[in-house]
Amino acid sequence: MSDLVKSALAGARAEGLVTVEEMGLQGMVTLRADLSAAGAAIAKVTGSDMPGPRAISAGQGCRVAWMSPDELMILCDHAQADRMVADLTAALAGQHHLAVNVSDARALFRVSGAEGPLRDTLAKITPADMAADALPPGEMRRTRLQQVAGAIWFETATEARVICFRSVAQYTFDLLAMSARPGGAVGYH
Questions:
Q1: What is the pLDDT of residues 19-68, one digit of tens each?
Q2: How far apart are CA 55 and CA 137, in angstroms?
Q3: Could you read off the pLDDT of 73-124 as tens digits, one per residue?
Q4: How far apart are CA 16 and CA 181, in angstroms?
Q5: Is the dihedral of CA 175, 181, 184, 187 positive or negative?
Q6: Alpha-carbon separation of residue 32 from 113, 130, 157 (angstroms)
Q7: Which residue, 3, 5, 19, 132, shows the most beta carbons closer than 10 Å to its own?
Q8: Can you list the domains of the chain with their CATH numbers?
């Protein structure tokens, strides 16, 4: 069975103003619930506090990202995603919720380089404000990546993550790589 599990782009990489890399298999669990009532279950299962709006909290071997007023995305080891769903389902028993392993329906990219070119590269493909004070490390923004939906967050000032649907992974990679081509510097950020 494990031979069937493959990342979207098999570690594709592009070098330019910044480096764009497909990160391989990543566990992702989406949770829809009344977040005001789910804090204890989230803490029990992930070891994380409930993140505030647009924030990402660190847990025990995972990260918990606020996606909307009733949705979280839990990033964990790919092999642990089904266990995470089962644990969340048990911890939220009796509460209206939906926990789903969406790992194989998403792709994750690392975009890294100097802060200015990194923010410029991302700003070319999204209407979201990529200024450091508008999107600091530890905050996630759901947005458009040209023609597709995605989410962006900064791990540090020099490293960002981009999530998209697996079905548009090649498009997103090509978009990021094109935006990062040498000669395309804008010097805005």
A1: 999 999 999 999 999 999 999 999 999 999 999 999 999 999 999 999 99
A2: 9
A3: 999 999 999 999 999 999 999 999 999 999 999 999 999 999 999 999 999 9
A4: 5
A5: positive
A6: 34, 27, 30
A7: 19
A8: 15-24+105-179 (3.30.1360.120), 27-104 (3.30.70.1520)
